[in-house]
Amino acid sequence: MATNADFPKFSQTLDLIMYQQKSPFEATFPTLHKQLYKLVCKVRSQKLIPKKCKSTTLDLLAHLEKSHELGSSSTGRQLLALLRTSYITSLLEAYDEVARTHWNVSLPEVSSSSDVENEDGPIVKVVQLVKSSEPLGATIKYTADGSVFIARLIAGGAAEKSESIFPGDQILSINGVNVDKKEPKDIVALLNSSENSTVTFKILPTKLRPCLSAEKLYKNKFLRAMVDYDPMQDGLHPCPTAGLSFSRGDFLEVLHCDDRHWMQARCIEQAGAGPSHVGVIPTDEQLSLYHDLSTDENDKNRFLPGYEPICQLTPKSDAMRTLVLIGPPGVGRNELKRRLLLHQPHKYVSTVPHTCRPPRPHEKDGIDYHFVSRPQMEEWLIQGRFIESGEYNGNLYGTLDDALLTAISRKQMPVINAHPVALRVLRTARFKPLIVFVQPPDIGTLKKTRGKLLGAKSVHTKRFSDADLEAMVTTSKTIEANYGHLFDASIVNDNLETAFATLLSTLQWFETMPCWVPADWLVSSS
Ligand SMILES: Nc1ncnc2c1ncn2[C@@H]1O[C@H](COP(=O)(O)OP(=O)(O)OP(=O)(O)O)[C@@H](O)[C@H]1O
């Protein structure tokens, strides 16, 4: 027989289903999602009390099936069918197993939170938390007279989950020890030293409950870090140990944004590693304080400010992106591009540049170059229509934006080897570039593979001096330092065959998997 005590377990299980399934589930079955949501609400409000089932969620589902609680509509039947799929059933079984496990924690007999009358008058609250390996998940601050207050709760931490402690609450004592004027290290020691399995706080609750959400301060909850950040190096961080360090190019999920200067975020899961812990990081406004002070010329190339709002782009077979190969001169971008065009000539295409120099005898207009007049080139330059342009031997050269747009409109993927500076123009919704960094291997491998001619394998074969190869490695490092956060993928070109195979699998990945792109790409294309 289910008791009320079993309901948290069941409702957590449903939370789990909704959380795990949310995006595909909600997107594919919006009506079913609504039904499931209603079910969770019903269970939560305990209006739905199954009398005939045991405490396992699978039993509860069996009960729902028999009792027609969900109605006999096709949506209700579909929902049950979905809940019965092997994926969901396994999830429920796993959860039941976890829920059945006895965790060896002896919960206190007193209620976890109770209001008691303080002798001096104001209502104080006693909050008792079960100790676990996870930290309390709260930072503290002091007033001038040494009183200790909760500064912020870390999203998803033990204090927040307790729903009994809030920012602004004053901590009067921990396990009966008065904390007034105690140093942070003494408070940490108090939290850790308690002998029993619980920690008891006496709290003077705040009258103001801050309720700013991430959405209110940040239109977009997901951000790409454009700078490196280490809270331990940040003298202005209110609590460096509760901070989160991240590197340029990391994807962050903002969970809380309590004020204009600090917010809570975690690094989004990357390549199999789970999401990072939640930590306090500076907002854009706070970060700009540090970078305003920067005199580093390279910062200007890094597309500051500190964060770029991002969203997930779901690949569509009829929406082409531009493949941009970035890398130091001589690293092999032309060779990779040449192989790609040969591999699928109908899909991957090259763009023909414009020039105002006269054609050479063997050159064909529209194939080697588009030959146009100098005034025409200058007019396009003024209009900002070139992706890249330059002057060589008194003649202008450039790649027109139309060249890319025409290929994209024909459902082809233009491939260009661009200078990183061109990313400023290219990285927009019009071209939706997929930016692949081609980097050289270590200098030893580079000397082995490029120091000698490749025989008759390629008509483009070049010979490099040791100085050329060393310059290639140095330039590669500079490009990565300045633009690495904008790269979607990196390929090491040690062996041409494997580098090309990696390029193909990278392209396949981006053609089939959702990926993070600047949020305005989707806004401007919708
Ligand atoms: N992995 C490799 N092993 C050996 N040789 C290579 C490799 N990759 C490229 N090469 C050779 O290096 C030379 C330079 O390559 P490529 O022209 O493709 O470089 P690039 O990045 O396009 O440089 P640039 O922009 O200066 O033309 C070519 O002769 C190419 O065949």
Automatic annotation (TrEMBL):
The keyword Heme does not apply. Coiled coil: none annotated. Keywords: SH3 domain. PROSITE patterns: GUANYLATE_KINASE_2, PDZ. Residues 320-508 form the Guanylate kinase-like domain. SMART domains: GuKc, PDZ, SH3. InterPro entries: GK/Ca_channel_bsu, Guanylate_kin-like_dom, MAGUK, P-loop_NTPase, PDZ, PDZ_sf, SH3-like_dom_sf, SH3_domain. The keyword Metal-binding does not apply. Residues 126-194 form the PDZ domain. It holds the Pfam family Guanylate_kin. GO terms for biological process: cell junction organization. It comes from the Eukaryota. Transmembrane segments: none annotated. Belongs to the MAGUK family. This is MAGUK p55 subfamily member 7. It comes from Panagrellus redivivus (Microworm).
